[in-house]
Design a protein that fits this description.
CATH superfamily: LemA-like domain
Low-confidence stretches: 4-17, 185-209
Helix content: over 70%
CATH class: Mainly Alpha
Distance between the termini: 74 Å
Structural class: mainly alpha
Radius of gyration: 24 Å
Largest sheet: none
Mean pLDDT: 82
Number of strands: 0
Oligomer: single chain
Strand content: under 5%
Number of helices: 8
CATH architecture: Up-down Bundle
């Protein structure tokens, strides 16, 4: 009896491997790992924002629209619960993607504001934060690209015959990916307008908060 059970288990293992189950499982884990890195880099960016906003506020407090825009965009991103289930929920994934896109645009506007404030641009704290932000944006791009490729590979496997039969049997579904529209939004610089000319920074303005 024991020998029979071992033989059946071996046959089942071979059967799962032959029908693509193992490949599906491996690619599913690759997608989750790639997504985790995307989330980590987005969180790294989010953690920089409070200090960045406070530093800009020290020199350009009158730019309320831009400052509030960044703060609200960050809060919107934080309100979305990012769990592994996001990868199985296209609507929630699209919502998260849109929120991150809005935050990206808000940050571009915030950085653009510095062009009107020479003292802000020369502030060491601001320059350090800006460098960290730029580095993080690069990491976000790399992480997103890895996720995009992982999902493409996984989705092709899920749709391919006969693996698609195995995928259907075990609940492996196509996963959402970043859209072309979102990629264009991220790569397009925002237009920033100012209601008034930028005033000189007041005496005693902080060099960083």
């Amino acid at each position: 009896m024991r020998a029979l059970l071992i033989a059946l288990l071996a046959l089942a293992t071979l059967g799962l491997s032959g029908c693509g189950y193992n490949n599906l499982q491996q690619q599913d884990e690759s997608v989750k790992a790639a997504w985790s890195e995307v989330v980590n880099q987005y969180q790294r960016r989010s953690d920089l924002i409070p200090n960045l906003v406070n530093t800009v506020k020290g020199y350009a407090a009158q730019e309320q629209k831009v400052l509030i825009g960044v703060t609200e965009a960050r809060a919107k991103v934080g309100s979305i619960q990012v769990t592994p289930e996001v990868l199985n929920n296209p609507e929630l994934f699209a919502k998260y993607q849109a929120a991150q896109g809005q935050l990206t645009q808000a940050l571009k506007s915030l950085i653009a504001v510095s062009e009107n404030y020479p003292q802000l641009k020369s502030d060491q704290n601001f320059r350090d934060l800006q460098a960290q932000l730029e580095g993080t944006e690069n990491r976000v791009t790399v992480a997103r690209n890895r996720y995009i490729e992982a999902v493409r590979s996984y989705n092709v496997t899920v749709r391919s015959f006969p693996v698609n039969l195995t995928a259907k049997m075990f609940g492996f579904k196509e996963k959402p990916n970043f859209t072309v529209e979102n990629e264009k939004q991220i790569s397009t610089a925002p237009t920033v307008s100012f209601d008034t000319a930028a005033p000189a920074a007041p005496a005693g303005s902080p060099s960083g908060q």
